[in-house]
Automatic annotation (TrEMBL):
PANTHER family: CIS-3-ALKYL-4-ALKYLOXETAN-2-ONE DECARBOXYLASE, MONOACYLGLYCEROL LIPASE. It comes from Jiangella alba. Residues 92-197 form the AB hydrolase-1 domain. GO terms for cellular component: membrane. Gene3D superfamilies: alpha/beta hydrolase. This is Haloalkane dehalogenase. Pfam families: Abhydrolase_1. One of its GO terms (molecular function) is catalytic activity.
Length: 352
C-alpha cells in the first residue's frame, strides 16, 4: 500500500469511526447540537483521593466554554514554587501533557525542578485530568483547545518569560501557542511530539501504530486509558499509578476529549486545521529562541527521530538534543529524573 493510499484509507477510517462514536455515545442525531443535561461534567473529587506521589495543591481557572453561551468550563492546574531555603531562579516552566494523560504525568518531574529553584505550572487540558469535561463532543476541536489554552496561559495566568515543556498533543498545541506568542517564551523543550500539517509523507512504521490508535480509541467502549499509558512505557507501572490515569474518567461520558483528540490529527492538506499549522510553521522556521528536543528511543511514533523539529527551527541548532534509551512514548514515566535534569541543564545554559 502506498503512502497516499494509506492516507486515504485512514481519512475514511477517521470519518467512519467518528460516526461510530456518535452511535456509541447516544447523543442527539442533529450534528453539532449539545446533548441534553449539563454542558460540562466534573469528575468527583474522591476519584483523586490518595493518588501516589501527587501531593500538589489544586488551582482552578474558569474559562469560556466556547459554545456561544455564557457557560464556563473549569481548568485545573498545578502551580508549584520554590520555598525557603531554596532560592528562586526566576524561571517559570509551563508543562503541557498530551493524550490520554494529565498533569499527573509530570509528578516526578516537577519536584526536582522546584528544588532547582524553578516555578512549575502544569495544566490539565480541558476534558482531561481534574479539568471539566464538556458533554458536547463537537466542542473538542483543535481551535477550541487553542482558545482554552490561550485564555488560560496568556489572559488569566499572564505567564511571561516562560520555558515551554510540551509532550504529545501538548506539543501540537503548545508549539502553536509559542508561534502565536513568541515574546512570552524564553525557550522550549519538545518531547515525543510534532507539528504536522497533513502534507508530510509519514513514516509507515510509526504511522501504522498511530492508525491503530485512531481506530482503537473510536471503537472501544469502555476505553482503557491506563492500558494505553502502560502500553507505551518501558517500565512496569504500579496498579495505583494505573488507577490514577483512569481516575479522571468515571464513565464514557467523560471520555469525549480523549476520543476526539485522535481524530483531530491532520491526515490531508484539506484538513480544517492545516492552515493554522502552516501559519505556525512560518513563525517557527524563523524562531531563534533556544529549542531542545528530548525524545524516547522506543517511542512508537517517532522512534526517537526529532529532526522534523530540530532540523527546521533555527533555535534548535547546536543544542544538546537527547534521545533517552529505555524510554517509550511516556518518557516522563520511564525516565523522569533524566527528563528533569535535561530541562534544568537547558535552562541554566541558556539563561539571559
Amino acid at each position: 500500500m502506498t503512502e497516499i493510499d494509506r492516507r486515504r484509507l485512514l481519512a475514511g477510517t477517521a470519518a467512519l469511526t467518528a460516526g461510530t462514536l456518535g452511535a456509541a455515545s447516544a447523543l442527539p442525531a442533529t450534528a453539532g447540537r449539545p446533548s441534553p443535561g449539563p454542558r460540562v461534567l466534573r469528575t468527583p473529587d474522591h476519584r483523586f483521593t490518595g493518588l501516589p506521589d501527587y501531593p500538589f495543591e489544586p488551582h482552578h481557572l474558569r474559562l469560556r466554554l466556547g459554545d456561544g453561551s455564557r457557560a464556563k468550563v473549569r481548568m485545573h492546574y498545578v502551580d508549584e514554587r520554590p520555598a525557603w531555603p531554596v532560592r528562586a531562579s526566576g524561571e517559570t516552566i509551563l508543562l503541557l501533557h498530551g493524550n490520554p494523560s494529565w498533569s499527573y504525568l509530570y509528578r516526578h518531574v516537577i519536584p526536582p525542578l522546584v528544588a532547582a529553584g524553578h516555578r512549575c505550572v502544569a495544566l490539565d487540558l480541558v476534558g482531561m485530568g481534574k479539568s471539566d469535561k464538556p458533554t458536547d463532543r463537537f466542542l473538542y476541536t483543535y481551535q477550541q483547545h487553542m482558545d482554552w489554552l490561550s485564555e488560560a496561559v496568556i489572559e488569566r495566568l499572564d505567564l511571561r518569560d516562560v520555558t515551554l515543556v510540551c509532550h504529545d498533543w501538548g506539543g501540537t498545541l503548545g508549539l502553536r501557542l509559542l508561534a502565536e506568542h513568541p515574546g512570552r517564551f524564553r525557550r522550549a523543550v519538545a518531547m515525543n511530539t510534532g507539528l504536522r500539517t497533513g502534507r508530510e509523507e509519514l513514516p509507515a512504521e510509526g504511522w501504522r501504530g498511530l492508525a491503530t490508535w485512531l481506530q482503537f480509541t473510536q471503537r472501544t467502549n469502555p476505553l482503557n486509558v491506563s492500558g494505553i499509558v502502560a502500553g507505551y512505557t518501558t517500565s512496569a507501572l504500579d496498579p495505583a499509578v494505573l488507577a490514577a490515569y483512569d481516575a479522571p474518567f468515571p464513565d464514557d461520558r467523560h471520555l469525549h476529549g480523549v476520543r476526539r483528540f485522535a481524530v483531530l490529527i491532520p491526515l490531508t492538506p484539506d484538513d480544517e486545521a492545516t492552515p493554522a499549522f502552516e501559519a505556525a510553521w512560518e513563525v517557527l522556521e524563523t524562531l531563534d529562541l533556544p529549542f531542545l528536543c528530548v525524545f524516547g528511543q522506543d517511542d512508537h511514533v517517532t522512534g526517537g527521530r526529532h529532526d522534523e523539529l530540530s532540523g527546521r527551527i533555527p533555535g534548535a541548532t547546536g543544542q544538546p538534543h537527547t534521545v533517552l534509551t529505555g524510554a517509550h512514548h511516556f518518557l516522563q514515566e520511564d525516565k523522569p529524573h533524566e527528563v528533569a535534569a535535561a530541562i534544568d541543564d537547558f535552562i541554566r545554559r541558556t539563561r539571559p
